[in-house]
Specification:
Length: 113
């Protein structure tokens, strides 16, 4: 089992969600997060005063899939839907999941997904 975490631009969330549903990935968790990478934030003007926005709003999507094949499908869908070609498009992190338990039924691992 694999856990896929993707950090994307907020306005790309619907496109990414639709691409994942179309690819057969139905469950996901979405969080609003803030951070920066190579962008290093940016400057903005507010009431004639300039200030630096260090942390940029992003969306974090978390998905757990049962096989490497589904992981590749999900990664491809996210990559295509989230890409703008500009700095700050985001990152995808993939990690192994050792064990999953569905609380309601007690199902485990692939059955719990």
């Amino acid at each position: 089992m694999k856990k896929i975490e993707a950090i994307i631009k907020p306005f790309k969330l619907e496109e990414v969600k639709d691409a994942l549903v179309e690819a057969g990935i139905t469950g996901l968790t979405v969080s609003e997060v803030k951070g920066y990478g190579r962008q290093q934030g940016h400057s903005e003007l507010y009431r004639c005063a300039e200030y630096v926005v260090d942390f940029i709003p992003k969306i974090k999507i978390e998905i757990v899939v049962s096989t490497d094949e589904y992981a590749k499908i999900a990664i491809d869908a996210i990559t295509k839907a989230a890409k703008t070609g500009k700095i700050g498009d985001g990152k995808i992190f993939v990690s192994d999941i050792a064990h999953v338990i569905r609380i309601r039924t007690g199902e485990e691992d692939a059955d719990a997904l």
